[in-house]
Amino acid sequence: MALITYREALRHAMAEELDRDPNVVIMGEEVAQFNGAYKITEGLLAKYGPKRIVDTPISEAGFIGMGLGASMLGMRPVMELMFFSFYSVAFDQIFNNAANVRYMSGGLINCPIVLRGPANGGTNVGATHSHTPESIAAYHPGVKVVVPSTPADAKGLLKSAIRDNDPVIFLENTLLYGETGEVPDGEVLIPLGLAKVMREGTDLSIIGHGRAIQMALKSADLLKEKHNVNAEVIDLRSIRPLDEETILASVRKTNRVLYVEESKPFCSVGAMVACLIQEKAFDYLDAPVMRVNSVDSPAIYSMPVEKLQLPTVERIYQSALAVLK
Amino acid sequence: MSKKSPSPKKADDAGYNARTAHINAKLGHDELIALYRDMVRIRRFEERCLRSYQAGKIGGFLHLYIGQESVAIGCVSVMGDDDHIITAYRDHGHGLAVGMGMNEMMAENYGKYTGCSKGKGGSMHYFDPSRNFWGGHGIVGGQVPLGTGLAYALKYQGRKGACMTFMGDGAVNQGAVHESYNLAALMSLPVVFIVENNGYSMGTSQERSSAGPSLAQRAEGYGMNWDIIENGHDVLEVRDKVDRALKLARDKHLPSVLEIRTYRYRGHSVADPDTTYRGKEEIEEYKATKDPLMFCQNALLAEKVLTDEIIAKIDEAARAEAETSAQFAEASPFPTVDDLQKDVYWEADNPADRKSQGTLFFN
Predict the structure, then answer these.
(1) Is A129 annotated in the active site?
(2) Whether the predicted interface score ipTM is above 0.90
(3) Scanning every residue of chain A, which has its alpha carbon at the shortest distance from the alpha carbon of B140?
(4) Per the domain annotation, does A188 fall within a domain?
(5) Where are the domains of chain B?
(6) CA-to-CA distance for B297 and B307, rounded, in angstroms?
(7) A181, A156, A182: which is closest to A170 by C-alpha?
(8) A75/B357 CB distance under 8 A
(9) Domain of A200: which CATH number?
C-alpha cells in the first residue's frame, strides 16, 4: 500500500499501461511539454518521449476524432480534455462516431479510446467550465462512463478503461486531484461496473457517484453521531455499465434511499437509479427515493454561492433525515 | 513530431497528358478495360438501387454517385496494400471500388441481415475494414478527423501507407475539416484530403456557400500542397494526380488537398427535388460532354482497347450483377429485434472475454 494522490494514481495508471502496451498514447492539450494543465501527465514526456505523449492544438473535435480514427486501426489513445466541459466542442466525434461506429459497421470496427479529464464545478470558473455530463454521456449506448472518487479507484478504473475495447468516458474531478488515499502496490485493475460499499449501514442507503460520495461519508458520520442512524454509503464508480445488484441489495436491506451527485437534477443518473429502484424493489421501499443534486441553474461564478449550489454535507445530512421520517 | 512542409504549391499543368503519365502509360488492355468496367458496375448498381428505392424497397436516403464514378475508381485503383480510405454518405462508388460485393451492399440498402453492416448502417454507412475501407459516414465532414487519425496510426505503426480522406464540396466549411487540415500539416501525417467537388452542397452552389478562389487552395493556409483535377471525369487524370499525392504522403509524410471537379446527375439524395437550383440543360450538357463512362469508352474505342462487343458484354454483366444483388437482397431476412443490442459493445458480443460487470443495456 502506498499513500498517493488521486493525481499520482492517474499518472501511475497511464505509465503502467504505456509500459505494457506500445499502442497506448497520451494525447491532449498541454499534456506533454507543459506537463499537463493539472499536472496529471507530469514527467511522462521525459520518460516516454514525444511519440507516446503528444501535445495537440486547442482543437477538440479534430484531435478527438483523430484519436478515434487511430483507435480504429488498433491504437489505444488516452485523450485528455483539459476540462471535460470541452467535450461539447467534440460532441459529434464522441457521440456520432465513437458511440456508433461499432454498431453501424455491424461489429466490424472497435474503438478502444479513453476520453478523460475533470468534470466538476466548485472551482469558480463559471458555467462553461463546470459541466458534469455523466448522464448525457451514459445516455448513449456504445460508450461506457466511469466516475472515480478515490485514488485507488482512479488508478484501477483507468487501467481497466485503457484495456477496454469500447470507448470509455472517464470523468475526474479537479477538487479530488490533490486528495490522498491508500493505493495497493502492483497491478490494480478494478472492473468497470462494480460499485463499492464505502460504509456499511442498515437504516438508509446513500448511493451516488463522484466527489459527492466524500460528502456523503461525512454526512453519514453526522447521522451516526447525532441520531444514531447507520447509513450505508455506496459509490457506483461506474455509471455505464451499472452495478444494479449492489444498489438493489442495499435497498432491500435499508428500505430507504438518498441519491447524491453533483449533476443537475433533470435526467440525472440519480433519476435513472430512482427509476430502477421503484421498478425492481418497489415493495422494499418505506419512503420515496430522494436526491441531492446541484441547484438547477447554470453553474454560478460567485464563490460563496457556488459552494451552496453544489451538494453540501449539510444538505445531504438534512435530506437523509427527510428520507428517514 | 512536427515538420515544416515545403512551400505549398499547385502542381504545374503545362503540356499535361494523363494517358502518357507514368502511372497510366504502363496500363495494359485488361487493366484499362477493368477501369471502365468498374465504373459501369457502379452506374448499373446505382440505377438498380434507384428502382428499388422507387419501389419502396430501400428506405431513408439514397445518395447516388452517378456522374462521379471516375473519382472513386481512379483513386482506389492506385491504392497500395497499406493505403486506406474513408468517405461520407455518398459511398456506393467507393464500396464497389475497394471490392465490396453488390450483394452485401444492396442487402444493406434493403436493411437486410446479409448486408455489409447487418442492416444496421444503411446506404450511408458501408464499412469494410478488411479492404481498408472505414466508412461510410453520415455527418458532413465528420469523417475527416477519423481519416486523419487513420493516417496518424499508419505513421505511428511505421506502415508505408496513406489515408485518402474523401469529402464533398459542402464539407469544406465544417470546422472539423479545418481542424483536420491543421493537425495533418502540423503533425506531418500521410493523408490525402480529396474534395469531390460536384458543384453543389445539397442544393447550394459553390459560389453561394464557399468563399475564396478555390476549395483546394485553402490548403495554403496550412502549408499543405494542393491541386485541382479539372477533368475529374477522366479516370486516368484522377489516377495520375492522386498517385502523386499518395506518394508524397507515403514517402514524405506530406499531406495534401486534392479538389476533383466532378458532377452528380441526380439530386443530393434521390428524395430531394432537383430543379430548384440548377437547370436540366446543365445536367444534359455535362452528360453529353463529360460523362466519365462515355469519356473513357470513347478514349478506349479510339485506342482499339474496347470494342462494341466488349462494351455490350460489360454492360450486360453489370446489369445482371445488379439485378442478382436486388434478388439476393429481396430474398434475405431482416435482422430481428434480438439483433438490436448486438454490435453495440465489444464486451457484450464477447461475453467469455468480458472484464467489466454490471448492466450495459437498460430496457
Answers:
(1) yes
(2) yes
(3) A92
(4) no
(5) 26-353
(6) 9
(7) A156
(8) no
(9) 3.40.50.920
